[in-house]
Specification:
Length: 206
């Protein structure tokens, strides 16, 4: 997910696309990507940070070094990612069922959601996918296989259910494998939850 892109009403789309990262087939070299699962724009460094899922790494691609990427975090089955206003990087570790926060330049992260194994308790996640971090550094997680969205406040030992009740389904209040999500800047509601099984976009008020 590209973090909060802003487009002018006069924006014009190019008819011909330009490859800005990858494009050399799948593999594990520095000029390869293998199943990229998420990306954000780091405006301060004019670069993309990409979840290179199968290669277990997060990589940075910049225009100055457009032919290859730089591994900034390794040994992580990274899926979704985002950045807060202090430029802390948050990454979902799909294999570990947790979300970790990294200060720029660090390879060791701090678990901020999950971290207690795979499960459905309030202190657990089950195949987390995408995340959103608000101004208070609360972390919202699409807890895919638990069919819910969790909110973990900064420093919390467990999360609270922000969306999704009871079991998986398509009735009002239920979710089915939620993926992408976005939280309004006011923090008052969760919106744009893409439900791949139910095939609709849902807005849920807190």
């Amino acid at each position: 997910m590209l973090r909060n892109p802003t487009l002018s009403e006069n924006t014009k789309w190019r008819q011909n696309s330009v490859t800005v990262s990858g494009g050399n087939g799948r593999g594990n070299r520095s000029d390869h990507l293998y199943c990229p699962a998420g990306a954000i724009i780091d405006n301060e460094k004019d670069s993309l940070i990409i979840c290179d899922y199968v290669n277990d790494r997060a990589v940075r691609w910049s225009p100055q070094n457009g032919e290859s990427g730089e591994t900034i975090i390794s040994n992580i089955r990274c899926w979704g990612l985002t950045m807060d206003d202090e430029r802390n990087l948050y990454i979902v570790d799909f294999r570990a069922h947790d979300v970790r926060r990294y200060r720029m330049g660090e390879n060791q992260g701090t678990v901020v959601a999950g971290g207690n194994g795979q499960g459905n308790r309030l202190d657990q996640l089950n195949n987390p996918r995408h995340i959103f971090v608000d101004r208070d550094q609360s972390v919202y997680v699409s807890d895919c296989s638990n069919h819910r969205v969790m909110k973990w406040m900064k420093g919390a030992k467990q999360g609270i259910v922000a969306a999704g009740v009871q079991d998986r389904g398509n009735r009002l209040g239920q979710l089915s494998n939620p993926r992408e999500l976005f939280v309004d800047q006011s923090g008052s509601y969760i919106s744009k939850i893409n439900l791949i099984k139910n095939h609709f976009i849902l807005r849920l008020f807190a």
